[in-house]
Amino acid sequence: MNYHFYGWQTADIRDARGLTPRDYYDLLSEIWCADTCAPRMRSEWTPENRTYGQCSITSFLLQDIYGGKVLGVPLEDGNYHCFNVVGDCVFDLTSEQFGDTKLDYENCPEQERSVHFAKEEKRLRYEKLKRELEARF
What we know:
Layout: H1 21-29, H2 55-66, E1 69-74, E2 80-86, E3 89-91, H3 113-116, H4 120-135
Antiparallel strand pairs: 1-2, 2-3
């Protein structure tokens, strides 16, 4: 498979199952849907842009699997685009939603799960994504 997400070339860390972030990208590509997309973005979600509106729930799910930190690229609208940093491995499974726009992954602030999941809808979307992923195993 051809990968295009940020960091795919060096995303070689493995979890207890021996899976890399590329493997999780493959699995999540079958799960990401309008129901897991951020509600404010849902009307623009399409199967062709599956990663759209999925960043925080995906990043925190991958943090559950690999540990590390979830950082956020500041966006012009005041929100943050979340991605993962595990040791020297930096990857963003949902970066494709930005098309050709290059994000600046340097000096980004850490994102706190408690802040993101203070929004119940986000916590519920995360739990749905997690359940669907676990069902694949």
